[in-house]
């Protein structure tokens, strides 16, 4: 199969022009946190959901709200609590006495951007209701099934320090998130800007710079980004080395890894690499794209053993070791 890289590059350079507009628009309200905005855009373009982990007050809610305004899309926020019911998220059937019939009342999941705040506070029943929406992009209420409007993106946040009253997300659910991004504190300069902006008390208004249709069109283009067989092999080597580290000469990792990445890891790593190349306004994937987003795709897909935890070894360490060992094409 011959691909005209030059023409593809040209097309993607033109079609990705809106990315700069989006970044510029959100940066008026969100100072710093380019990494978080970029990860949200990756999820949006690669049709994947994003799990954000970070302490309170790091502008997670503000970021997704600003992004939805810049895209002219619907936004809803669900605060997860232990007493939440599935109906509170997806909606329910309500009896209308005047008409003597049941009508469907849709829940906050019917939105383009859904912020699931502190997702690990909700019990399993609620988490599984969210799961159908994330995976199938549809919701069942009573006997009716409703398609969710595209683009549809779930951004879940979890607070890494509180354990009281939280339910850890099961592996099967965590695997449904394309990326898990760890949000850190801003730098001192950025924080100075944040303080000044908040003291003014007037936040700049975010105007829509793109439409939801543009995002859907961009998703089609992202899939056209060229990926060489060598890059494909590189992605497979990374994922397979989490399952069988000995085969890749990493015997010291075999007692640390409980289970490796599933085929979803390979699919998401390939898709996210294409989306990352698109964000760089390039029509082909290079190894650096894969390496840039590898931690975000893999960190929640590698299960560690008790020995690893006893030795204070994190998923980050394991992924870094793999990236340093697996041969780069």
Question: How would you describe this structure to a colleague?
Answer:
This protein is an alpha/beta fold and 329 residues long. It has two domains: 18-215, P-loop containing nucleotide triphosphate hydrolases (Rossmann fold), CATH 3.40.50; 225-325, Magnesium chelatase subunit I, C-Terminal domain (Helicase, Ruva Protein, domain 3, Orthogonal Bundle). It is 46% helix and 16% strand. The protein has 14 helices and eleven strands. It has helices spanning 5-15, 17-26, 34-45, 60-70, 86-90, 124-136, 171-174, 188-200, 212-224, 229-243, 263-279, 287-298, 306-310, 315-325; strands at residues 49-53, 75-79, 91-96, 101-106, 113-117, 138-141, 144-147, 153-158, 177-182, 257-259, 303-304. Strands 2-5-8-1-9 form a five-stranded parallel β-sheet. Strand 3 (91-96) and strand 4 (101-106) form a beta hairpin. Helix 9 crosses helix 11, helix 10 (229-243) packs across helix 11 (263-279) and helix 12 runs antiparallel to helix 14 (315-325). The chain starts with a helix and ends with a helix. The model has no long low-confidence stretch (mean pLDDT 84).
Count of DSSP strands: 11
Helix content: 40-55%
CATH architecture classification of the largest domain: 3-Layer(aba) Sandwich
Structural class: alpha/beta
**What profile does the largest beta sheet have?**
5 strands, parallel
Poorly predicted regions are none
Tell me the Rg in angstroms: 21 Å
- What fold name goes in the CATH topology slot of the largest domain? Rossmann fold
**Order of the strands making up the biggest sheet:** 2-5-8-1-9
